[in-house]
Every structure is written in structure tokens, then in C-alpha cells.
Design a protein that fits this description.
Oligomer: single chain
Structural class: mainly alpha
Length: 162
């Protein structure tokens, strides 16, 4: 199980780093457009590039957050629960995250196919919309795998705590 965790962590880290690179592209395009605007020559379609990069970057960062336990946890209701109850509740919530990640990945992949099939593209740069959907689908598919793995880990921990 630890070898699988190491592999998923490495893949998730690479995914998040690529997402970070896309964020830098978005920042660069935004800065260039602002400077160009001050000089009377803004970048046409800058928002299209930024939208594409941000959507994919977020999806690519989710697996890393999952593997590191970086999602927000509200423990107001569990602060007084016994450790065994918290372990089982955490395992159930991780399974719920895996289910949500699966639904999102399937829907975004279906959206990518729909955008490709209809040949939809952005207005100014004519960037195919399916690129963004497909990139996000990859990130969400990896999130599904990591969420399933973390849920299985948590169920194992909860069983040992019982």
C-alpha cells in the first residue's frame, strides 16, 4: 500500500506542478494584457486563455490536495466524538469525496466529447473548448483515483481503530 501511495503522491505532485505552470501562464497573459492596454494595444482573447488555464489548473491541483489531506475539515461537530467514531466518519466522508470526484470526472469527460463533437471554439482566438474540458477531465480522473485510494486507507485505519 505504501508503494502505491508513493506513486500516487508523485503523480499528483507532477499534476499540481503542471497546474501551477498554467497559473503562471494565466498571470503572464493577464499582466501582458494590462500593460498592453496601458499602451493602447490590449491582448485580444486574453480572458479566453486565462479561463482555460484556470479551470484546468484547479482540476490538476485537486489530486495533490487529496493525497496531502489538504482539503478543509470542519471539526466542530466531531471535537467531542470518540476517536473510533471520528475515524469511521472520516472514512465515510472520504468515500463521499470519491463519489463526487467520480461524478465530476464523468460529467466533464462527457462535456469534452460534446464540445469536440460540436466543434465549439472561443470567440476571439477560436480555441477549441474541448481542450479545457479534456485537461480538467484528466485532473478529475486522477482526483477520483486518489480519492478512492485515500478512502480505502481511511477505512483500513478505522477498522484497526475499532
Amino acid at each position: 500500500m505504501s508503494a502505491l501511495r508513493e506513486a500516487l503522491t508523485a503523480i499528483s505532485r507532477a499534476s499540481a506542478l503542471f497546474g501551477g505552470l498554467l497559473l503562471l501562464v494565466a498571470v503572464g497573459v493577464t499582466c501582458a494584457s494590462v500593460v498592453g492596454g496601458l499602451l493602447g494595444k490590449p491582448i485580444l482573447g486574453d480572458s479566453e486563455v486565462v479561463e482555460l488555464c484556470l479551470g484546468v489548473a484547479i482540476a490538476l491541483a485537486l489530486p495533490w490536495a487529496e493525497m496531502r489531506g489538504g482539503h478543509v475539515i470542519v471539526d466542530v461537530f466531531t471535537a467531542r466524538m470518540p476517536a473510533r467514531g471520528v475515524a469511521w466518519l472520516d472514512a465515510l466522508m472520504r468515500a463521499a469525496v470519491a463519489l463526487v470526484a467520480t461524478v465530476l470526472a464523468v460529467q466533464i469527460a462527457d462535456g469534452a466529447y460534446g464540445q469536440w463533437d460540436r466543434e465549439r471554439a472561443s470567440m476571439f482566438l477560436e480555441l477549441p473548448y474541448w481542450w479545457g474540458y479534456a485537461g480538467a477531465a484528466v485532473g478529475l480522473a486522477l482526483w477520483t483515483v486518489t480519492a478512492l485510494f485515500v478512502a480505502a486507507e481511511r477505512f483500513g485505519e478505522a477498522r484497526r481503530a475499532a
